[in-house]
Amino acid sequence: MLAGFTGTPGKGAHTKMTETRTNTAVLTKRGAARAREGHPWIYRSDVAEAAASAGDVVRVTDRAGRFLGRAFYNPKSEITLRIAEREEREIDGAWFRRRIERAGACRESLKIDASAYRLLHAEADGVPGLVIDRYADYFVLQPGSAAVERRLDHVVAALEDLYAPTGILLRGDSASRKREGLTRKVEVLSGEVPDSVVVHEGPVRYRAGLRGGQKTGGFLDQRENHIAAAQYVGGAGRVLDVFSYAGGFALHAARAAESVEAVDSSGDALEIARQNAELNGLDNITFTRFNAFDLLRERSDAEARYDAVILDPPAFAKTKRDLPGATRAYKEINLRAMKLLAPGGVLITCSCSYHFSRELMEETLRSAAADVGCTMRVREWRGQALDHPEILTIPETRYLKCAVLERA
Ligand code: SAH
């Protein structure tokens, strides 16, 4: 597929100056059009020629030699090029520092009422394949591209200089690393990092497992939805939080409602949720280890009623191919949840599957409501927290949907 590929093994040992001057990639007409439209991902089939090796920064041009940008190169990845810079600028330590500084200024402006947040959201903050999450005095890095992995020293230097953190952890255990040919590793890059740390999210405190927890320790993209949920369930009697994990929604809901039942299939997650409830002095949460599909079916068959149901499942559609099955699963849990609502009850329902679009989710919810025969009023459509920005020209940066519906 890589016609004209002139791979030069051993290039990686060159200095970065040499790299950016000599490594080049030429795009096909379609690839060049895509780059000009503002999408940073260039697929393998859109790369006409490349003279570089995995992890290099390459100068990208069209077939006529017109400059399109500088990109992170990885021939092992389906996304062979990730455009990181659209000007003729060197991608060096100062470049990484500027990007991190800019992302930090954006987070400052958000006045986030939490000690854990996403400092840098990969492509959406101009550094393809790098996530930086902050947990109080610690930073957790998730590199998802070979070029970033090779330049982590720049990232660490910038963070040390800008934030003087107590420790920086590399969480190299995400599924996407495999596709980039990166090996699994979790290691401390600077200072000291404990296994977990207590952070706050609005009025709630929770323990985030930095080394072993899901994602980098918490579902930071749900922060604003967690806080909004407390408002929607305010004064409610019984709340059912399904797919609870460490209690992201349950803890906030329990401060506002009479009682919350947190459901998850993972005993470990529920044990952390229980500790988090204790940390907040909340004694109105019960924890049920159960398969969500079975529990929702059993409860709705038994005609149980709740004032609020929260659904925050894992991504059912990781790829486009998963969509038919995923759609059925989303419909099933939402249909059951709607049945469980008392009149005036609130359904807070989420999907973090990019492929399951907002339109498709709306259609699925509509079809569930029709089957139940209930009227659902739309209170609000929400998305991911603002520290997980979206880029208009990169649809993949908009992935989390959260609908708040009220049963009339
Ligand atoms: N609501 C949480 C995040 C949920 S992550 C928050 O806001 O922080 C998804 C959770 O679903 C995980 O904890 C996982 O253990 C759980 N899960 C996945 N499949 C499940 C199933 N079939 N039944 C119950 N829980 C499930």
Q: Which structural class fits the helix and strand makeup? A: alpha/beta
Distinct small molecules bound, one entry per kind? S-adenosyl-L-homocysteine
Number of DSSP strand runs: 20
> What is the CATH topology descriptor of the largest domain?
Rossmann fold
**Helical content class:** 25-40%
EC number: 2.1.1.191
GO cellular component, one term: cytoplasm
GO biological process, one term: rRNA processing
Organism: uncultured Rubrobacteraceae bacterium
Characterization of the model:
Pfam families: Methyltrans_SAM, PUA_3. It is found in: Cytoplasm. This is 23S rRNA (Cytosine(1962)-C(5))-methyltransferase. Residues 24-105 form the PUA domain. Its main location: cytoplasm. The structure is a single chain. This protein has 408 residues and is of the alpha/beta class. It has 3 domains: 24-85, PUA domain (Archaeosine Trna-guanine Transglycosylase, Chain: A, domain 4, Roll); 93-198, RNA methyltransferase domain (HRMD) like (Transcription Regulator spoIIAA, 2-Layer Sandwich); 219-407, Vaccinia Virus protein VP39 (Rossmann fold), CATH 3.40.50. Helix content is 32%, strand content 30%. The protein is built from 12 helices and 20 strands. The protein has helices at residues 16-22, 29-36, 93-110, 146-150, 152-163, 176-179, 223-232, 248-256, 267-279, 292-301, 323-340, 358-372; strands at 24-27, 41-43, 47-51, 57-61, 67-73, 79-85, 116-121, 130-135, 138-143, 167-172, 185-191, 196-201, 204-209, 238-242, 259-264, 285-289, 306-311, 341-351, 376-382, 401-407. The strands form 4 sheets. A 7-stranded mixed sheet has the order 16-15-14-17-18-20-19, with helices on both faces. A hairpin with an 8-residue loop joins strand 7 (116-121) and strand 8. Helix 10 (292-301) packs parallel to helix 11 (323-340). The longest helix has 18 residues, at 93-110. It is globular and about 70 Å long. The chain starts with 15 loop residues before the first helix and ends with a strand. The protein binds S-adenosyl-L-homocysteine (SAH). S-adenosyl-L-homocysteine is lined by residues 219, 222, 243-245, 248-249, 264-266, 269, 291-293, 312-314. S-adenosyl-L-homocysteine binds next to helix 8 and helix 10.
